[in-house]
Specification:
Blueprint: E1 3-6, E2 16-22, E3 29-30, E4 35-40, E5 45-49, E6 54-59, E7 65-68, E8 72-77, H1 107-113, H2 117-126, H3 143-151, H4 190-205, E9 208-216, H5 218-235, H6 241-255, E10 262-264, E11 267-269, E12 276-278, E13 280-282, E14 285-287, E15 290-291, H7 299-315, H8 320-323, E16 328-332, E17 351-355, E18 358-365, E19 368-382, H9 388-403, H10 406-410
Parallel strand pairs: 12-16, 16-17
Antiparallel strand pairs: 1-8, 2-4, 2-7, 3-6, 4-5, 6-8, 9-19, 10-11, 12-15, 13-14, 17-19, 18-19
């Protein structure tokens, strides 16, 4: 007897999602717990598992369809029954003979089902018809896999954008007949749409102001160079810059609680905990996983947690709990080469710190001009809650703590 494949329950803040890919094709055998499909929401990707062993008899909802919690999207039958109803014959054509069941010979369709949306766009942009082997969870093909494969030596040149578009290119349009210039149209992912909505909301509802400073990173770089190998050997993770910034920001937030607060209607909510969001780039777009109770984490735990979140972001396996909440955010545009920027608030938070590229620059020290590794830092804040004095002093505190890391141990 066939059982229904349904969309899992969403949290209260999520009403629907997009069925982005089927990981199994009709007629394929599946095992209990095996992932059948992926449903993308504006925050995370939910996996639809098989509740029992059997055969995916029928796919009722194609990829790209908006679905709701509990909606039936397919049917799962007992093993040996896959020829009963799948595939359905086209109108006017005879049904396939019982002795010729649909066979899961489709390695390409299985591969296609595991291609993430950003990877599909990358394939279309590069004119690639076949996805490369995936490095993500469960063999998912990520955007990085496509970029890597496209940059590798190949016997054939990558077709230009003017190639005839296909359905796999996500609604790419043909060159305009008037002037022959190509365009393409792709649907905005739910995550991108949600990011856009929140950024516009922040600009519309908050009085955003940004203050800047610069930090001499020599002391931090010397500490990393001196203890990098011992740290990695002892803790199994690299010693990066982010853990220094997290610790410095926590100390500064303790001194200036307004920066860690938020506005709720006519009330100011002062948080007695420090949940720091770390902005991470993923194939689906920008996500901000949260370091819960970051003040209780040592530098090794901070680095491990950030590494774990980075891997989850690339594989598309961040849970809703990983990216919900947060009292303050740190974003590092320096990894992409940004020298200076004005980060936008992540509502309902009231401040965000932007790190940037470390650049050797001439500075004055003790009456002499020397070359030092300098980083511009920017603090964007909601002026409705945080005055300029607190914002500037907060940034100065971060600067002083990083230019003399011993202060982080002494709490001064």
């Amino acid at each position: 007897m066939a059982s229904e494949v349904t969309v899992p329950a969403f949290p209260e803040s999520i009403t629907d999602g997009t069925l982005v890919a089927w990981r199994k094709q009709a007629g394929e055998p599946v095992k209990q717990g095996e992932i059948l499909a992926d449903v993308e929401t504006d925050k995370v990707v939910f996996e639809v598992p098989a509740r029992e062993d059997g055969v995916l008899e029928e796919i009722l909802v194609p990829a790209g369809t908006t679905v709701t919690a509990g909606q039936v999207i397919g049917r799962l039958g007992a093993r040996g029954t896959q020829a009963a109803s799948v595939p359905k014959p086209a109108p006017g054509k005879p049904s396939p003979a019982p002795s010729a069941p649909a066979r899961p010979s489709a390695t390409p369709p299985a591969r296609e089902a595991a291609v993430m949306p950003s990877a599909r766009r990358a394939l279309a942009e590069r004119g690639m018809s076949e996805p490369p082997p995936g490095s993500g969870k469960g063999g998912r093909v990520l955007k990085e896999d496509v970029v890597r494969a496209a940059s590798a030596p190949a016997p054939a040149k990558t077709p230009e954008l003017r190639a005839v578009p296909t359905a796999a290119s996500m609604q790419e349009l043909a060159p305009l007949p008037s002037d022959g210039r190509p365009e393409k149209r792709v649907p905005m992912t739910r995550l991108r749409a949600r990011v856009a909505e929140r950024l516009v909301e922040a600009q519309r509802t908050a009085a955003i102001l940004t203050t800047f400073n610069e930090i001499n990173m020599q002391a931090v770089m010397d500490a990393r160079s001196r203890y990098r190998e011992e740290f990695e050997h002892a803790h199994g993770v690299r010693l990066g810059f982010m853990s220094f910034f997290v610790r410095a920001c926590i100390e500064a937030l303790k001194r200036f609680p307004e920066v860690n607060a938020s506005i709720d209607g006519q009330d100011i909510v002062y948080h007695g905990y420090y949940d720091l969001g770390i902005a991470v780039s993923s194939p689906r777009g920008l996500v901000v996983p949260i370091l819960r109770d970051a003040d209780q984490l040592d530098m090794a735990a901070i680095e491990k947690r950030i590494k774990e979140y980075g891997e989850k972001a690339q594989a598309g396996t961040l849970a809703l709990a990983d990216i919900t909440g947060g009292t303050f955010t740190i974003t590092n545009g320096g990894v992409f080469g940004s020298l200076l920027s004005t980060p936008i608030l992540n509502p309902p938070q009231s401040a965000i710190l932007g790190m940037h590229k470390i650049e050797p620059r001439p500075v004055a020290e003790n009456g002499s001009v020397v070359i030092r590794p300098m980083m511009y830092v920017a603090l964007s804040y909601d002026h409705r809650l945080i005055d300029g004095r607190e914002a500037v002093q907060f940034l100065v505190a971060v600067k002083e703590l990083l230019e003399d890391p011993a202060r982080l141990l002494l709490g001064v």
